[in-house]
Design brief:
Helix content: 10-25%
CATH superfamily of the largest domain: Aminotransferase class 4, branched-chain amino acid transferase, N-terminal domain
Number of domains: 2
Low-confidence stretches: 1-8, 21-28
Cofactor: pyridoxal 5'-phosphate
Number of strands: 19
Structural class: alpha+beta
Shape: globular
Enzyme class: transferase
InterPro entries: Aminotrans_IV (IPR001544), Aminotrans_IV_CS (IPR018300), Aminotransferase-like (IPR036038), B_amino_transII (IPR005786), BCAT-like_C (IPR043132), BCAT-like_N (IPR043131)
GO molecular function: L-isoleucine-2-oxoglutarate transaminase activity; L-leucine-2-oxoglutarate transaminase activity; L-valine-2-oxoglutarate transaminase activity
EC number: 2.6.1.42
Length: about 425
């Protein structure tokens, strides 16, 4: 049966809860200034940077950022200062900066797309901007109005977008990294008195194919190595946020997996091998129940172990809307499915595989978009995941196409937010 979501906190609930915690404290001083995009000052670069060719070595290097960046300072005695768009360049901070010692930093990952209609779009930027408030508040860093950050993003990308995503290159994107760091110079376990919000844009490879230029052809699908002793997140922790401390400690397991020929780690939790995330992406499985029903299953948000991914939420919403038995949008010849958010284990996945009930699996996230999973190594057993379309599963391909069409303007949808460009 399709699960209900009445007890599952929405992203809006998490955003509001995190923002409220800090706003209560901030209201004690009514003089603190809120983030205000209307005060934006732009200093245009006089030395433009080289734009790499699509899917080139420069793109795969992921460090050739666009011409400009957003910078906004917050201080404890003033609040948010006037935001700036300035030429891309180094940041300056003291060696005692809080983020260097206590991981007081968080970020978002999003993309801006050059549509096939010639327009630039962000995909559900309100979700990313709001989630950054949640992450910042979890670190006791300042909150802000996410609407104001979205305005700043539009101004920034309206400036750099035309050159870095020209209309002649429809179907390409830039990766956007909004980041908040505690750069106050007080050495000690305390909330930093100064914080910086900055945003950069960088050409990014299409990780859903994983095909580097000049490299041997790669078989379709990701191969995942299920974790054994290492744990990514735990109940009561901060796995539901994008704080930087969630990511660095995972590098060791990731590199060990790469040495064994796997693309990502499938993070498990507990003695029952509870499935959480795959790398930094949400994990989905499609299987037949023992009663013969088809289900799309993913881990729930209830324990705050996994990230409330924007792509994850979009997959769930589209699947409920278009793949249910009662949907008028159900594609011809496609069997309807139930959408289930619940705790499930690798033992269940393994059992479904052994009994021939495993249909397909995929990961969803900004970096990897929608990428099929071809295999999972669990307790040294290689579980082969069916890919009925040859290079992916059927449902994986359907959902990916739906999202692709929204992101690149093939269909008009409220999730695709158009950016006004400065030609």
């Amino acid at each position: 049966m399709a699960s209900t979501t009445g007890t599952v906190p929405s992203m809006s609930d998490l955003i509001q809860a995190g923002a409220n915690d800090l706003k209560v404290e901030m209201k004690a001083d009514s003089q603190l200034q809120d983030l205000d995009a209307s005060k934006l000052h732009i200093t245009q670069s006089t030395s433009l940077r080289e734009v790499p060719e699509p899917n080139s070595e420069g793109v795969w290097g992921s460090k050739q950022c666009s011409d400009h960046m957003i910078k906004v300072i917050w201080t404890a005695d003033h609040g948010w200062h006037a935001p700036e768009i300035v030429p891309y360049g180094p940041l300056t901070m003291m060696p005692t900066a809080s983020c260097l010692h206590y991981a007081t930093s968080c970020f978002e990952g999003m993309k801006v797309y050059r549509g096939f209609d010639g327009k630039l779009r962000l995909f559900r930027p309100d979700r990313n901007c709001g989630r950054l408030v949640t992450s910042s508040s979890r670190l006791a860093l300042p909150a802000f109005d996410p609407v104001e950050l979205e305005k700043l993003l539009k101004a920034f990308l309206g400036l750099d977008g035309p050159r870095w995503l020209p209309k002649s290159q429809a179907g390409n994107f830039l990766y956007i990294r909004p980041t908040i760091i505690g750069n106050g110079e007080e050495l000690g376990v305390q909330v930093p008195a100064e914080v910086m919000l900055f945003v950069i844009a960088v050409p990014w490879p299409d990780l859903s194919t994983g095909q580097k230029p000049g490299a041997p052809p790669k078989a379709p699908g990701l191969k995942l190595l299920a974790s054994k002793d290492d744990i990514r997140a735990w109940p009561g922790g901060f796995g539901y946020t994008k704080v930087s401390a969630n990511y660095g400690p995972a590098f060791l397991s990731h590199m060990e997996g790469r040495k064994r020929g796997y693309d990502q780690i499938l993070w498990l939790f507990g003695k029952d091998f509870q499935v959480t995330e795959a790398g930094a992406s949400n994990f989905f499985v499609v299987w037949k129940t023992k009663e013969g029903k088809t289900e799309l299953v993913t881990a729930p948000l209830t324990d705050k172990i996994i990230l409330d991914g924007v792509t994850r939420r979009s997959v769930l919403e589209l699947a409920r809307e278009r793949l249910s038995a009662s949907s008028k949008d159900l594609p011809a010849g496609v069997e309807p499915l139930d959408v289930v958010e619940r705790t499930f284990s690798m033992l269940e996945v393994e059992e479904a595989w052994k009994e021939g009930r495993l249909v397909e699996a995929f990961v969803a996230g900004t970096a990897y978009f929608i990428t099929p999973v071809s295999a999972v190594n669990f307790r040294d057993t290689e579980i082969e995941i069916p890919m009925s379309n040859g290079d992916s599963g059927k449902y994986t391909a359907i959902v990916k196409d739906w999202l692709y069409d929204i992101m690149y303007g093939k269909v008009q949808h409220p999730w695709g937010v158009i950016i006004e460009e400065k030609e």
